[in-house]
Amino acid sequence: MNFDMRPDAVMQELMGYSQKLAHGVRNLSEVGEISSGVSPKTPVYSEDKLTLYRFDPPKDKIPGRTPLLIVYALVNRPYMTDIQENRSTVKGLMDAGQDVYLIDWGYPDRADRYLTLDDYINGYIDRCVDVMCQRHKVDKINILGICQGGTMSLCYAALHPDKVKNLVTMVTPVDFQTPDNMLSHWVQQVDIDMLVDTLGNVPGEMLNWTFLNLKPYQLMGQKYLGLLDTLDDPDALKNFLRMEKWIFDSPDQAGETFRQFIKDFYQGNKLLKGGLEIGAPVSLKNVTMPVLNIYAEQDHLVPPDASRALRGQVGSRDYTELSFPGGHIGIYVSGKAQKTVPPAIGKWLDERA
Amino acid sequence: MVGDSSKNWMDDWLSAQQSYWKSWADLTQRGMQAPAAPRNPWAEGIDQWWRAVAPMTPPAGRDVFDKLMDLSRGYFSMAERYVADSGGAEKGMDVINGWFENMQQTWTDWMHGGMHPDDRMKGLMTFWDLPLDTWNRLSASLMPMPGDFTQAFHPEGAQAGLRGQVNRFLSIPAVGYTRESQEQYQRLAQLMMDYGNALQAYQMAFGTLAVQTTQDFQAAIRDNAKEGKTFTSLREVYDQWVEVSEAAYARFVMTRDYQELYGRLVNTLIAVKHQMARMVDQGLEALHMPTHAEISTLQCRQQELRRENLRLRKEIQDIHAQLEAMRQRAIQPEPEAPAKAAMARPAPAKSAAKPSGKSMSARAPVKSAAKAAGTKTTANKAGGGRK
């Protein structure tokens, strides 16, 4: 027999469970406000819902001459890159000597329903790049694109290669139809036109539940039982709540942008296969600047093969890959990532300064 | 904040639970059959406790605790089931096998006859229901109807005969003054039927998956037994179950069948919402109020105007930059160098523009025009899609 669970032991287990819950509620009352986005920053440009921030460089560091722009995904909030003091990609990049800017897309509402990818890429991103170029009196900047923001950065770099000195892509989908891509598999038979025509903007909640359904038993069940083990520790509880806040903080998606992103990228795979137009034809062969492509080996949202597909597609001869042994979120927040990823980006950029 | 009163609540609750479980433990240790208890007393107890404490907790984190409590109810139900079925004896494997049989039977009954699980099984099924629960929450959030109207759908509704009859009824041509309105309602009813059918097919597939997962779980336990592994806590059983469930789920949702089911589910739900929006618009139009479609058209035009405005602003900036460069050239004193050298020097337009920080905008109006043309194309496409 391989079940040695005596009923009294089970009840003892439940007693412990109840005690943890009760202590957890006490700790919950002392948690206070859940802050996010810890590094000081200054807004330098804003337009519509967008704000371009510059992170205040550390006083003991002189940042590099070429500033670095972080382009985050539209589907979540960018404070994930700076979520807490000891888990901040931004801080790591600044420690590595980078002058870091970040685009906060804000929360699109129904008035933004007709924003297109063209508006985002050739409009918003381009104007942010111009602002940075003018502030630093340079012709080109460095870009770090994350997840969907990486795909948008690739498109931007292909359309404006004269404005991008170096491009770093992080957990960025390029091939949207790899056999292990669950999101892509699910969306193939969804009538996106009817969805957008009916809903207008696509609710963030809808995307959120979709992401949770990638691993429903872990992400909606086991994760919360795991929380029980850390309820005694106020700091751990606060960290958990901070992550939870981020996970459920999903902006609505501008309808037309969503339509084009799903149809052209997920259903048409046009970034890889060709035929993509965002104001003008987009060809990865026009990405001629040095490229550092970072992917996570256990990424359940953007499978490694979806990112690695960039190899051989860009026009640049200076192409580097960096794999990280972790998941889609761990690549920004895990202790291991903090020690390896930002320093590697800083070193790679410095070598191409 | 959790004050003294809630502290007392928690202490009272813990002490009551402690004595309750101690009594149960004493009975089971003596090998006695536990007395009949209310259904799911522990799960209900924890529920009551949370209802009392929740209002006193700060909003930050209450959602998380709500989720934890949902899960805890299932977890406690699982424990109750185990302890009740064990009858004080050390026959864990038999109890677990009993669970499996019950779960399989419950899912099978549910799929074939629309039988709902009894209250005790319902607690256990909380775990299995997670992907369906997600869909129910999502679809409810998209629907203007109060609550989840899909609760009215039962598997027996999927029977072809009944469905055919309803379809024939809904196909009766509308007549009279209210013909158009009747047709809209018939259309809505038809679309809701389609969604109901899609939802049932989806639920049935998950029922099959649940049975499959149960079998996989049994196989995993057998494998563990062969390797000499022992489960000593509910938590270990639960973790193993999660691992097996995720694996079975991942296989299932990557099939072509699931892709079709999911596509049909989303498309039929959106079709219902689309029809509802159309009917609301007709009502608004009759009242001479702005409709959703009209506002959407205005939003589209507004965005086109903003694009045009931005393009023109950029062109004006470029022209200003060029004028400034020309002005700088004009006011610069003629160098004293020999006339020949001055004539040979190239025009300093670019370097003159740079100090004013306009080098980017001086990047030629040709490019802006090209961009604008592209923008227009996309906007047209967007408008086309809306039609």
Q: Which key features would you list for this structure?
A:
heterodimer; A: 353 residues; alpha/beta; Rossmann fold; 8-stranded mixed sheet; two-stranded antiparallel sheet; 10 strands; 15% strand; B: 387 residues; mainly alpha; 3 domains; 14 helices; disordered C terminus
Report on this model:
By secondary structure, chain A is of the alpha/beta class. Chain A has a domain at 41-180 and 269-351: 3-Layer(aba) Sandwich (Rossmann fold). Helix content of chain A is 44%, strand content 15%. Chain A has 14 helices and 10 strands. Chain A has helices spanning 7-30, 89-95, 117-136, 148-159, 182-187, 192-199, 204-212, 216-228, 234-247, 255-267, 270-273, 304-308, 330-333, 335-351, and strands spanning 41-47, 50-55, 68-71, 82-84, 87-88, 100-104, 141-146, 164-170, 291-296, 319-324. In chain A, the strands form 2 sheets. An 8-stranded mixed β-sheet of chain A has the order 1-2-6-3-7-8-9-10, sandwiched between helices. A two-stranded antiparallel ribbon of chain A has the order 4-5. The radius of gyration of chain A is 21 Å and the shape is globular. Chain B has helices at residues 4-29, 41-53, 62-86, 92-113, 119-128, 130-142, 160-170, 179-226, 234-253, 256-286, 292-331, 339-344, 349-353, 365-386. Chain B has 3 domains: 1-90, no CATH class; 92-289, no CATH class; 306-327 and 352-386. Helix content of chain B is 75%, strand content 0%. Chains A and B meet through helix 1, helix 3, helix 5, helix 6 and helix 7 of A and helix 1, helix 2, helix 3, helix 4 and helix 6 of B.
